[in-house]
């Protein structure tokens, strides 16, 4: 670790921030006594941190773990969001990793304990916190279960980011297949705290997660620039009320948030034919499954039960993309030839039998331009194409 911190090595890393690491790997090591692969790893990991972890990237003499660790860590945007959900005197992070979440937790909680079973990673994180002048985080290199058994002060919060034991085939995975095995250890955790936050990959099915956990108070679906990055499961000991779903999109210029109680929508959804405006929910809402709730809360009509597109005559602020419908055409040869064949357009399909690729090939439609086309099914089960301009 010390050899990587020499002035010459650090200057080389900074000077090659934008270099091709693969090409660098073919060069001869310029630094005797310092592993060339380790230097290349610092450059590669730093490149990953540039937009994801600007605080680390813009601080001198930061050390990075493997590039994969940096790829898997929370971004600063999502870490700041998580930190806004906690408070109190003590938070224990049972799966510390690179410590980005803890950096932000430490701004909201008096004391943070960073547990990391990998001693090398724990040492890097401790060193970085010193460089970043963070004094209220204690780094412990040990199994978090053992650490939790020995704590004298009960934490206000436990935070867990379980990792999958192996990359099982297919997209479905269960929390019981992760380390630590949270469902198995849940009762043990609740002997120590009343509040638990669990971070999972967005690939985890929400229904499956609910089947494995108990006392779930809230589920936060966190997207950055309309890409879902993580699910946050907030557990409160002995909680019995309905689960609150929060879909949030941390966009560049604004934060879009939409909340509803799971299985609590009592208002009937109104279905209707396309009107003046079209609304497409952001990715976080799509993951939440709150398709009926979005219609009733925003007083918009749904095009079809399975289309998840909405319409209204009055323009409203909406958590997603908003379009003006310029034309509504039928999906038939005559109208497709007249309006879209050999044209340029951005294509989206919702509840439609053909894929975007098939549509482009069939009608020779090029990608791009200012025309947005939604191929979908309307409330009368007709296949339609909405020609739109983005608002």
Automatic annotation (TrEMBL):
Transmembrane segments: none annotated. InterPro entries: PG_1098_Fer, SAM-dependent_MTases_sf, Thump-like. One of its GO terms (molecular function) is methyltransferase activity. Pfam families: PG_1098_Fer (PF22013), Thump_like (PF18096). This is Class I SAM-dependent methyltransferase. Residues 320-390 form the THUMP-like domain. One of its GO terms (biological process) is methylation. Keywords: Methyltransferase, Transferase. The keyword Amino-acid biosynthesis does not apply. Residues 277-319 form the PG-1098 ferredoxin-like domain.
């Amino acid at each position: 670790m010390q050899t990587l911190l020499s002035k010459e090595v650090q200057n080389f890393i900074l000077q090659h921030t934008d270099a091709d690491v693969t090409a660098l790997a073919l060069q001869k090591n310029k630094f005797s006594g310092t592993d060339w692969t380790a230097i290349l790893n610092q450059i590669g990991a730093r490149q990953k941190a540039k937009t994801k972890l600007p605080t680390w990237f813009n601080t001198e003499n930061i050390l990075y773990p493997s590039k994969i660790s940096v790829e898997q860590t929370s971004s600063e945007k999502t870490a700041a969001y998580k930190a806004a959900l906690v408070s109190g005197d003590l938070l224990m992070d049972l799966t510390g990793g690179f410590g980005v979440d803890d950096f932000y937790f430490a701004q909201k909680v008096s004391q943070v304990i960073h547990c990391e079973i990998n001693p090398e990673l724990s040492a890097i994180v401790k060193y970085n916190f010193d460089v970043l002048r963070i004094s209220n985080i204690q780094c412990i290199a040990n199994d978090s279960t053992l650490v939790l058994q020995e704590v004298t002060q009960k934490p206000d919060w436990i935070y867990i980011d379980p990792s999958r034991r192996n990359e099982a085939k297919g997209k479905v995975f269960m929390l019981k297949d992760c380390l630590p095995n949270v469902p198995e250890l849940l009762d043990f955790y609740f002997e120590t705290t009343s509040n638990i936050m669990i971070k999972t990959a967005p690939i985890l099915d929400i229904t499956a997660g609910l089947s494995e956990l108990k006392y779930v108070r809230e589920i936060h679906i966190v997207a950055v620039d309309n890409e879902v990055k993580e699910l946050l499961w907030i557990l409160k000991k002995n909680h019995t009320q309905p689960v609150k779903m929060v879909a949030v999109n941390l966009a560049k210029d604004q934060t879009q948030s939409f909340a509803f109680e799971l299985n609590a929508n009592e208002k009937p959804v109104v279905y209707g034919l396309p009107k003046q405006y079209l609304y497409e929910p952001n990715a976080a809402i799509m993951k939440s499954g709150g398709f009926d709730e979005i219609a009733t809360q925003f007083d918009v009509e749904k095009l079809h039960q399975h289309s998840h597109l909405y319409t209204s005559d009055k323009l409203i602020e909406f958590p997603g993309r908003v379009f003006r419908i310029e034309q509504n055409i039928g999906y038939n040869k005559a109208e497709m030839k007249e309006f879209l064949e050999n044209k340029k357009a951005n294509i989206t399909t919702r509840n439609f039998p053909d894929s975007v690729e098939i549509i482009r090939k069939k009608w020779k439609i090029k990608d791009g331009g200012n025309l947005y086309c939604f191929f979908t099914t309307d409330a009368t089960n007709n296949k339609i194409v909405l020609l739109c301009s983005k608002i």
